[in-house]
Design brief:
Distance between the termini: 37 Å
Structural class: alpha/beta
Number of helices: 18
Largest sheet: 8 strands, parallel
Number of strands: 18
């Protein structure tokens, strides 16, 4: 199997798909224009598409209906009964700025030519029951209720946003922000096609993006900007692939020599940095799931702790299974990350990824003392691998976490793998069916479609990657969702955002919106507008039409080209 992190980024299948799509582009544009006018799935240019929405245009993206005006000087977002929530208060402050990017010194222009009905003065956000207003990070977990109902009337009465948790309110605020437009001819903000009625919820509870900060260090400010952009697309999981063979950039008070394996002293995350990222993500409704990939992909550990590696510097990984010190270091890091109990530690989330992929045991088989230990235990190298995985997963469970592993572990354990384990599929899409039919919860991140470092995979392939394809109804409940993966061999801060976007947004809609939302042409028009939207918010987004992702625009043009 081609290694997932060393994959050649040229591919004939995706290139052929791009050529076919390009050849059909002219005809598709005309079809798309007609589809927007008649397809009830198209609602304004919202992304991701809500589950249920209606407006004065009957859900269409064309003209029609009136508008309500908004004045930056008079419009307010109220949160009665939930004012104590710091998460919600911070979100209101953010969106108050995002709604009105252009300064307006005067009152609403009364000479506007927009067919207005009234001025909208308030958006009232209600979170009920009261427990939903809690800022306890333990409440941001797998299955957190992110549903909301949004109504924008046409008579100037209050717009309303109702949710069961502050995180549902965050999703509704993003949708409302996408409804607000600015008319440059009249210097007025408005919501068109009123009245609006939206009922929305995510299709999958796990909608994630993996970021590899070991192959190339990503500064905290860049990670925060990425989290902001994830919030705009309603992602809710940041999978932090923090350490790998090349670097261990995390500080650890339990094992203080580990970050000697960082690329350089500045390319490190302090404990305060890590807490800062986790809190920043929480305030955007995003869980942070860390990955400690063991026993393979751990060569960087050997810089600070050579004694836990088989035969440094010749053989660094997998970590030495014969040394008690190896398990002590692993447990020390896991203890610090979890706080030894549920909902605590550097990473309070209930999930913790322990990797387990691509374990090449040749190093064990060629190291005398490891071979002697395996013989004394009655193990071959496969048994030793399972032994290490068992001990690591037992530690994770003892500390109140659900272990997440790459599919390689499932391949070797089979039915012996504890069923309180989440399996992340990365090799082939077809593996997902095998995992869930064996009774395991699963995440989809197949490299054919959802690897962002595969620059030849076009956004349409991301968009049409359906997690339920071929999965029986009874097993579908075990598919928690999925993640797009941003491996870092060829990505640093200079090209991160235009590699992630807009293709990640295509997967975000697949994971949020209804299963039958599959019209590529209407999606193209909305995604083009979403690209403009992200660019206006300062996110570096590549054009949709690139043959290879992250290429610059080929010629002068608008944000939709």
């Amino acid at each position: 199997v081609t290694q997932r992190r060393e994959m050649n980024t040229t591919g004939t299948a995706c290139a052929s798909l791009w050529l076919l799509l390009s050849a059909a582009a002219a005809a598709a544009a005309a079809a798309a224009a007609a589809a927007v006018a008649g397809d009830a799935q198209v609602v304004h240019y919202l992304w991701p598409l809500p589950q249920q929405a209606s407006s004065a245009t009957g859900g269409g993206g064309g003209g029609g209906g009136g508008a309500v005006l908004l004045s930056p000087a008079r419009f307010v977002i109220a949160t009665p009964g939930c004012d104590s929530s710091r998460v919600l208060s911070a979100a209101v402050a953010r969106y108050a700025a995002l709604l009105f990017p252009h300064d307006e010194e005067s009152a609403i222009n009364t000479t506007t030519t927009i067919a207005t009905t009234a001025e909208l003065l308030r958006l009232v956000v209600t979170v009920a029951p009261a427990a939903g207003c809690s800022d306890d990070i333990a409440l941001l977990r797998e299955g957190t209720d992110e549903s909301y109902e949004l109504a924008v009337p046409n008579d100037g009465s209050d717009a309303t946003l109702d949710a069961r948790t502050v995180y549902g309110a965050l999703r509704g605020l993003e949708t409302f922000a996408q409804l607000v437009e600015y008319d440059f001819d009249t210097a007025a903000y408005h919501v068109a096609h009123v009245p609006w009625r939206i009922e929305d919820w995510p299709r999958f509870t796990h909608r994630g993006l993996l970021l590899d900060t070991a192959r190339h260090f990503q500064p905290v400010g860049v990670i925060k900007a990425l989290l902001d952009s994830m919030m705009y697309a309603k992602f809710n999981v940041f999978h932090w692939h923090a350490v790998d063979t090349q670097a261990f950039p995390f500080e650890s008070s339990a094992e203080p020599k580990l970050w000697e394996g960082a690329w350089s002293p500045p390319a490190r995350y302090t404990l305060a940095d890590i807490r800062n990222v986790v809190e920043y993500a929480q305030y955007r409704g995003i869980r942070v799931i860390p990955e400690l990939d063991v026993p393979g992909h751990a060569g960087s550990w050997c810089t600070g702790y050579p004694e836990i590696c088989p035969d440094p510097p010749k053989c660094l990984q997998p970590l030495d299974p014969s040394k008690p010190e190896t398990y002590s270091v692993i447990a020390g890091v896991l203890g610090e990350w979890t706080g030894l109990t549920t909902g605590r530690g550097l990473f309070p989330d209930s999930y913790l990824h322990v990797g387990g992929d691509e374990v090449d045991t040749l190093c064990w088989d060629s190291t005398v003392h490891v071979v002697q230990w395996m013989e004394s235990m009655g193990f071959d190298s496969g048994d030793a691998y399972l032994y290490m995985q068992n001990l690591t997963q037992q530690t994770v469970r003892r500390y109140g976490r659900v272990p997440v592993v790459w599919e390689d572990v499932f391949d070797l354990f089979g039915s012996a793998l504890d069923h309180n384990t989440v399996v992340q599929v990365w090799r082939l899409f077809s593996r997902l069916k095998l995992v869930v039919e064996a009774g395991y919860r699963a995440l989809l991140s197949d490299m054919e479609h959802w690897y962002l470092d595969h620059l030849d995979v076009v956004w349409e392939a991301f968009y049409l990657n359906e997690p339920f394809q071929g999965i029986d109804d009874a097993a579908q409940q075990l598919v928690l969702g999925g993640e797009v993966a941003m491996w870092g061999e060829h990505v640093d801060s200079s090209d991160l955002f235009n590699t992630v976007w807009p293709r990640a947004a295509a997967a975000a809609e697949r994971l949020w919106s209804a299963q039958n939302v599959t019209n590529i042409e209407t999606a193209r028009l909305r995604l083009e507008q979403f690209r403009c939207y992200l660019l206006l918010r300062g996110v570096g987004v590549a054009p949709l039409s690139n043959f290879r992702a992250r290429e610059a625009p080929p010629r002068p043009g608008s944000c939709t080209q």
